[in-house]
Amino acid sequence: MKNILESNLIKNKKCQCDEIDFAKVKLGESKRCPFLKCDNYCVIHSNLGEEYLSNVCTSFPRVTNKIDGIYEMSLAVACPEAARILLLKKNGIEFSESDENLGKHIISSEVNFI
Prior knowledge:
This is FliB domain-containing protein. The chain has 5 helices and 5 strands. The protein is an alpha+beta fold and 114 residues long.
């Protein structure tokens, strides 16, 4: 992991906070993320876990909304892989309720109807 990180990250000279903007990802000519494996899964997520994802990757394609004090998590179909998975589900999309730790998820919107 160390080699792939060192060869694909550029230290941000204008860094304001190491936890927010420490480095930038070096994209090749194809503009494809160098951390995506050929099966479109992220090597950082696969090897280290979700907590090691950058702020951009933590929030996209994930969408977290707060509606009447309840958090709702979904995916944005702007991501081709998320769209493919969601739209090709033979039995449609299912929703479930659970108690989750939000970690560093970014709230996309907050709506209060009450």
